[in-house]
Amino acid sequence: MSSRAEQKLRTRRALMDAALSQLSADRGFGSLSLREVAREAGIAPTSFYRHFSELDELGLALVDEGGVALRQLMRHARKRIARDGSAISTSVETFMEYLGNNANLFRLMLRERTGVSKPFRTAIKAEIDHFATELADDLHRFAEEQGKPLSDSRLVAEAMVTLVFNQGAEALDAAPKEREDLKVKLKTELRMILMGAQSMARRTTRG
To answer: pTM (2 decimals)?
Structure first.
């Protein structure tokens, strides 16, 4: 890669980091301005357009990055599950690690998931659907390996993802003790969903 291309990538990264750094519990992406993001990144506002056509395009790039990072981390969790066993406990711990390292990315996805921008809603829905699909495949495989079929692995996955996102929203600004309590609660609720789906499958089998 040429030095010019490398510099362009670094500046693009700086703009994305600048936008992320300005998000908080009290400030959403919609309140950011192109000028302040450019200033934070150390470039002139006019130079912004060499990297993104508008601020929303930068936001969509962040949504994509957040979804990819979460899926990659959960793929890593599968290796930990294979080694350590407990799927739910390992998955929750991994998700909380993601939350700790990507708090503002998760804030962005949470807020814009139901925001006014249709492109944002569509992009975030696609990321959540990707995540749910991979989780459904994992659940189906684990169920077959353990001989404990589920009534509908896709519905189970969607219920779990919804629950995880909701609890993640609570955990974002929670104190350490509160976050630990939320992890325990989340693990219990996920096990309830899983056991319910297993029970429904047994009833269906018995007719």
So the answer is: 0.84
